[in-house]
Design a protein that fits this description.
single chain; 386 residues; alpha/beta; four-stranded parallel sheet; globular; binds pyridoxal-5'-phosphate; binds zinc ion
Length: 386
């Protein structure tokens, strides 16, 4: 195993693999590896020859000991597709989509949950609990079932029906809450000690982000070990953004890529845009967004524990943050669908909708290489298209 320790993302305190949050400052922990040893064992050429196309092909860069079987359903290894027709419509000549709807349970949440459930099982947890906007719950339910563990999913009552039904059909205990994901999280915090639940909330354990970082590894590999000029990522809790940024640093340390980084743009919904507000205000942390509302349920995260990390990444990368109206997301879904044959989730659609204004403002130049992350499938959000 190449995992050496965990380090607090805020105060730098060091912990072993069992720790969940920093006990000094309650901020997220990030996994650290002996990257010099990984570089001796794993090369870009070895990777190419591996028959396993799932994210577990990056085994040496994941936390589970090498001799332990992962809880897997073949997550990761999603296509990076050119989108020339939609690109042409908005005036971009080099536009791509990383289509995460092809993951098990149809969203990128599978990546994080495969790794986090594997680690939770390895470390001895038996009952896993998560607050979810929808897709994380479905992914937890799937991987917990495969691991033979209990899943307890807390979702807002108005979560898309497909997510609720999926969790139930995968054997999870589902509780619907009259409130937002933050209220679901508070309910888990209140009950977890008595119930013996292991808290799988975004960034309250360190391994979902390790699964998500494989987005960054795959992207670099698919682009011939280079990175695009610009990444647009629909941001709720921010694990994808934080995970990819971590992957870029690790890959540079491994000697797999150079120091060039994409400009990272966080895309949120106008009805819930705490990161956009904080970015525009020049703040280090985001204030809880009042009366959060959006049909892009994955973006309905009014307060995120990793807010300071997201804001740091957006600024360091020279990127930014932008909010999109729900009506525009829904409208653009059909434009992308008709041009490219992809039924994207509203969260992914938000990124496509953001392109036009970023081009108009000069933040994106027409010949730059742009990658949009479609994090889920439109098929889970049928209520949006009624
Ligand atoms: C489809 C989809 N996109 C984006 C997000 C936000 O992801 P993150 O929490 O990594 O920022 C979610 C979270 O629920 C989601 O389900
Ligand atoms: Zn700390």
């Amino acid at each position: 195993m190449f995992l050496t320790h965990l380090v607090c993302s805020a105060c730098g305190t060091v912990y072993d693999a069992k720790q969940t949050l920093c006990s000094k400052c309650q901020k997220p922990l990030l996994a650290q590896y002996d990257l010099a040893a990984v570089a001796r064992e794993l090369t870009r050429e070895t990777l190419r020859t591996r028959p396993d196309k799932s994210l577990w092909r990056f085994r040496e860069l994941l936390p589970l000991p090498q001799n332990v079987d992962p809880v897997s359903r073949g997550e990761g290894g999603t296509p990076l597709l050119r989108v020339p027709r939609f690109g042409g419509q908005v005036g971009l000549s080099n536009l791509w989509i990383k289509d995460e709807s092809l993951n098990p349970t149809q969203s990128f949440k599978a990546r994080g949950m495969s790794v986090a459930v594997s680690m939770a099982k390895y470390l001895g947890a038996t009952k896993l609990a998560v607050p979810s906007a929808g897709n994380a719950g479905g992914a937890l339910a799937a991987y917990a079932a495969r691991a033979g563990l209990e899943a307890h999913v807390f979702m807002p009552r108005d979560t898309p029906r497909a997510n609720i039904l999926e969790c139930r059909q995968l054997g999870a205990y589902v509780t619907l809450i009259d409130g937002l994901i933050t209220d679901c999280g508070a309910e888990i915090t209140r009950r977890k000690t008595d119930e013996g639940w292991f808290d799988m909330s975004t960034l309250k354990e360190p391994y979902r982000v390790e699964g998500k970082k494989t987005l960054g590894y795959e992207l670099a590999e698919q682009l011939g070990w280079s990175l695009p000029d610009i990444i647009l990522y629909p941001t709720g809790g921010g694990t994808g953004l934080i995970g990819m940024w971590k992957a870029f640093m690790e890959m540079e340390a491994l000697g797999w890529i150079d120091a060039k980084r994409p400009r990272m743009f966080s895309v949120q919904a106008s009805g819930c845009a705490p990161i956009v507000r904080a970015f525009e205000a020049g703040a280090d942390h985001a204030v809880e967004f009042p009366n959060a509302q959006t049909r892009a349920s994955g973006l309905r995260v009014p307060k995120a524990i990793g807010d300071f990390l997201m804001l740091r990444i957006l600024r360091e990368s020279g990127g930014g943050a932008i909010a999109i109206d729900d009506d525009e997301m829904i409208r653009i879904t059909r434009e992308v669908g008709g041009a490219e044959g992809l039924f994207v989730a509203p969260e992914g659609a938000a990124c496509f909708a953001a392109l036009r204004s970023l081009i108009d403002s000069g933040a994106i130049k027409r010949n730059e290489q742009v990658v949009v992350f479609n994090t889920g499938s439109g098929i889970k959000y049928l209520e949006c298209y009624g």
